[in-house]
Amino acid sequence: MKYCSTCGHPVEQRVPEGDNRHRYVCISCETIHYQNPRIVAGTVPVWQGKILLCRRAIEPRYGYWTLPAGFMENSETTLEAATRETWEEALAEVTVDNLYTIIHVPHIDQVHMFYRATLTSENFGAGEESLETRLFALEDIPWDEISFPTVRRTLELYVEDVQKEHFPVHVDDIRYSMKPQGR
Amino acid sequence: MKYCSTCGHPVEQRVPEGDNRHRYVCISCETIHYQNPRIVAGTVPVWQGKILLCRRAIEPRYGYWTLPAGFMENSETTLEAATRETWEEALAEVTVDNLYTIIHVPHIDQVHMFYRATLTSENFGAGEESLETRLFALEDIPWDEISFPTVRRTLELYVEDVQKEHFPVHVDDIRYSMKPQGR
């Protein structure tokens, strides 16, 4: 951020009065431009015990398999965002079972939230952001070609919870590591 | 938003190629400025069966009682944000028990998340944004002077769940109503 989106003058980084963090502040109109984490919402779409995954047609991680998910938009709920993304990326209609994982990724200022969901029919396809979509039995999940750490963590938890037949809400963090997990 | 924060030229509202929503797009450098919901994180801080509430020293809702909560910052988790806000507003140190409520407020592009928490001692006080803080027995909660609908909903759920001795994660929405609930 270099310019004020309100008046077009340059911004500087300083700690506003009464605050304790550096913010972008306009040198002219003094508007404080706060920056906050974004939510990525998605589903674990299940059909007869198999999970629907999407092979990404866009960067980052082109060609890797992902759960349908994307940035939550203004004016919607995380559940609406999750089902919208499932439709857009997998052309799949789902009913949501429950909120399943909330995974913080603080080094990129994101919170990923996945809902457990059930396909309403065997109809699905590849949306514009997917090369293909496919149902995977749990033993066939392509672990070496998974897109993002939050998708991997959610799938790992799901496979464990299927054994236990119990699907609680999991709150977890993925911290930056010097050995990047492929992103 | 009137100006591009990257180059300072005016922005216009249009649907970028491959998108289906109006976005602010710079007429000069073509940067797309996405806008996304923000997370408010807080706690239900409990000490020996009583809930710690804060009387707001700032607008909106100056003088009303609230649970400690505030906007999540970059580089933190919702749990870290919730405990930070509890410290800043109530000078209270807590241990978090579990994620408790996730309440969407889509008409103001916010998601409020409250954790159940236990004070580590009877020490608390009024931070800069609080006029006073006080422990309330459940039967003494000042229902007529509660700050925001998400705080009210969370407190209502908590009072119910204390009866049931069961505190599941609640996912809920508060939609705009023509009869505003005081905000």
UniProtKB/TrEMBL annotation, chains A, B:
Q: Which UniProt keywords apply?
A: Hydrolase
InterPro entries found in the cross-reference section:
NUDIX_hydrolase-like_dom_sf (IPR015797), NUDIX_hydrolase_dom (IPR000086), Nudix_N (IPR029401)
What positions does the domain Nudix hydrolase occupy?
36-159
Per the UniProt record, the lineage of the source organism begins with: Bacteria, Pseudomonadati, Pseudomonadota, Gammaproteobacteria, Pseudomonadales
| MF-aspect GO terms | hydrolase activity
Pfam families hit by this protein: NUDIX, Zn_ribbon_Nudix
What protein does this entry describe?
NUDIX hydrolase
Q: Give its E.C. classification number.
A: 3.6.-.-
